[in-house]
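Researcher: Please translate sequence to structure tokens.
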Amino acid sequence: RLAPLLARFALLHTGLKIQLDLRETPWPDRHDADAVIHIGTVKDSSWVARTLQLNERWLCASPGYLRARGSPSSPRDLSDHACICIRENDEDVTLWHLRPGTGTETRRSETIRIQPAFVTNDGTVARQWAEQGLGLVLRSAWDATEALAAGTLVRVLPDWQFDSAPVLLLVPTRKGRTARVRALVNYIEEGHVAHVRTPAG
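Model: Translation complete:
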């Protein structure tokens, strides 16, 4: 979804050279970048963060896994399941925070400590493991949507909300911005950010 957005931006600014660097590593202050699109919260950065998308995360599993292991009916059931975790941004991936969804506000929020059966720093690998029936995975809505539509994954505990992983645009402070960075910020602020929203949004 990012590549098409940059392609449209480049067509409007034909003199620009675009270099797209995709990384799974935690956020550093990137002095060699004009702008960074980052998924997840950012701590202790000197750059300015603008939220592009709140980016809900959904708990999913393959139909085969749920037939074999059963589907959890409450957050506390998660301790009895194989969980696939994604290690990113130095966060504690074994703590899952759940809030009641719309219409179920009488429930209390819960925090569950899970024991990961599989851990990776690559979200695509984690989703593929889940599709292969290895366990439950917590994925961004935009990444899970196609698998849900294809039937290779189904949502688990859909009436609970997990912590979101916001999609952020990180740019230097106003003093340090170049003309090309200002053009990108203006492009996004004019409404083109809709192109990176999830299909459900």
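Researcher: Any highlights?
Model: Residues 28 and 81 are 34 Å apart (CA to CA).
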